[in-house]
Amino acid sequence: MPEPLNLQGERVNFDPRLQTQRAGSPVPSCVSMKSDRSMPEPLNLQGERVNFDPRLQTQRAGSPVPSCVSMKSDRSMPEPLNLQGERVNFDPRLQTQRAGSPVPSCVSMKSDRSMPEPLNLQGERVNFDPSVETDLTEDQSGCCQNVQHNTSMSESDDVLLRIIEGHKTTLKNKYERLYEGVALKENQTLLNSIYTELYITEGESEGVNEKHEVLQIETASRKWVSQDKPISCNDIFKPLQKPEIRTVLTKGIAGIGKTVSVQKFILDWAEGRTNQDIDFMLVLPFRELNLVKDEQFSLHRLLLEFHPELKDLDPKKYNDCKMLFIFDGLDESRLQLNIPEMLCDVTKTSSVNILISDLIKGNLLPSALIWITSRPAAASQIPSQFISRVTEVQGFNDSQKEEYFRKRFSDESQANKIISHIKTSVSLHIMCHIPVFCWISATVLQEMLRRDYVKEIPKTLTEMYTHFLLIQTKMKKQKYEDKVETDSKNPLESNKEIFLKLSKLAFNQLLRGNIMFYEEDLRECGIDVSDATVYSGICTEIFKEESVLRQKKVYCFVHLSVQEFLAALYVFYCYVNETMEALQYFTNNIPLDMLLKGAVDKSLESKDGHLDLFVRFLHGISLESNQKLLQGLLTHTQNNQRSIKKISRYIKELNKDGVSPERWINLLHCLTEMNDRSLHEEIQAFIKSENYRTKLSLAHCTALAYMFLMSEEVLDEFDLKKYKTSDEGRRRLLPAVRCCRKALLAGCKLTEQSCSSIASVLQSVNCPLRELDLSNNDLQDSGVKFLCVGLKNPHCKLEILRVSGCLVTEEGCSSLASALSSNPSHLRELDLSYNQPGVSGIKLLSDIKKDPHCRLDTLNVHWIRKRRELIEYNHLGPVF
């Protein structure tokens, strides 16, 4: 019988001093037939000997010595103690009947198998297996929740552990590297070295998903001032208030970071950092499920298609293990998921549609966790009753954008230059909420700064993507043709045919709503499938092929916006060359203004806004300066000033009744792409209109705030209270603080979350804000602390701050004093009246005011105080 284990897992030897030699036996024994004195006393938790209860001892016939051991019954043996010192009764179900004995007993003289198994800390019986003794590693400690990790494990459990470890190793090798753009060796980066945490919130966004995805991220940045609470990606299955989280749906636009978040989630698990209660993470991307959607599988066999390392896994273990199924990219699914059949057996063969449907519904493996990612417009495919939690990836906030660029560029000065330039352009700064756009911008700006093309640095979206196309083509020459492209030769000209084929593919598939293409789609546009790698090489980071399930190929552009840019380029090429094939979708008239008008009308007819960004690029390419950049693809340029004026007038005069604010914003973007700077006038017209005098909806508030930002005009005064809307509507208008000199936000029910957003504004380069009134808001000390982060930033130039009646105490005053000490040269007036700063708070601020470097001229700390405090306060002298 193996020695018992103490609480440290070490074997405990019986005290040899207590052993006695039995007559006629060469082996010492701790058991005597005449007396129990030869048996060592058990140890308690302090390592002291515990005497058996003498009250339970019985006198055997013919023996002068009491004994705790009886040959006929175990009732004479004292019950063991539990951790509370109470006697524990042996489980009668474990007692066995000895031959020739009418009484069941748990003690046998020949074998220890009749002895009841000890209890673990959960009160469950633990089976000792003397044949296998294994020390559990830290990673193994997270294994199957229903598999008992004993000091010795059964052979089947050992096999299961090996499968789990092999599965983790496979996933670690697969997901530890990130490919930015095409999956070429030179593009790979260790994920942990560049990964930047994304801003993820719990709960669905307000309203339907009938707007273009790029606009969704632009408006999502406005939501950061609302009451949404961020959630860490690794915590999405950890309940906050709900009793159980089984199925999580994560929404987010293309390129916002959903798939990279999944990759980081898996890598952290495979490396043993998080979620170690999960045994298997089974990744089933919809783009690969599409390739087998017409075949029949059991769930077990389907999993082996995606995870062959599970070939030795017994299907019976599926219900014993904690499994997470990850379905990435619901928007790419071609499966029919709403099927009424019910499947409960993992070994039963059925269609992929039924397997996935029943997994999500909980008919199959109801204890399994499910994680689905999707672009917003496709999220409604999963009925809400099957979703436990909805999360939304909203991209990078301002600090996360900076973190990304600093991680991407080891040269700190280069990173600073790029960050500084992006901040000077509102449109670029907002678009960088999208991680993929951060990558595109970084690629372009790094190259332009290297060549000292500072004056040519793009300001509009069309300019950025045009330069991106040029730079990637030059990189292709260097990588694949071993040439250094000279500046005098246009790199687009020699690749014109291939680019036009790719642009045609982009346009055709955009009209069909496809972002993933297959071989037949490429052949339709004259692209030789066997030469697909060449096409990838020509565009390097623009068009890519992927080997997926069974080495089948799928193709896509690196980002939806790249597809939309090339689609617009194809239509404009057809216009310049009077090729009616593509133009007939919009108009039968050839003048440019009629083409653009037709594109605008078509985009407004689209419910999901899938043509919005395409229309924006089309207006941008019509500008002569952008046509010059595209020489080589376009045979000649055109001066379209007359047409541009006509379409600008059409957009401004367009009847906006029934047009959602988000769609209207996109039309205003079109003006910006054509260098029409009259957006500020449009805002003023809106404010004076009837729409403004009625109560603004949340969507209108979001749109109006965005219009303020995109106008790039500085407002003299922004008075939040004069806008007729709800409290949440006012919070959505708050980003307009970024573009005004004086912000009047008093009495608008702002909170500490609002202060965090305002602090971000104060840290912005060239922020025009000089006067800020936050009086009569429930900010408290926590809100003031957020505000102080901005006040102490060297970019902050705020001169007047009013926080009267904001429930600020000594703690908040201490934060203000610290901020002013760090950056004393800007604030000259501080109003803290009707708060509770206390004597210590007043003294801290008074001392700061005496600092010769401090510009603070006026400090108002008038407060309601007791008589004794008034006397103490008066000794400090005047501080008004």
From TrEMBL:
InterPro entries: Leu-rich_rpt, LRR_dom_sf, NACHT-assoc, NACHT_NTPase, NLR, NLRP_HD2, NOD1/2_WH, P-loop_NTPase
Organism encoding this protein: Chanos chanos (Milkfish)
Keyword Acyltransferase on entry: no
Record's keyword terms, sorted: ATP-binding, Cytoplasm, Leucine-rich repeat, Nucleotide-binding, Repeat
This protein's name: Protein NLRC3-like
PANTHER family: NACHT, LRR AND CARD DOMAINS-CONTAINING
Record localization: Cytoplasm
SUPFAM superfamilies associated with the record: RNI-like
Annotated segments matching region Disordered: 1-80, 96-123
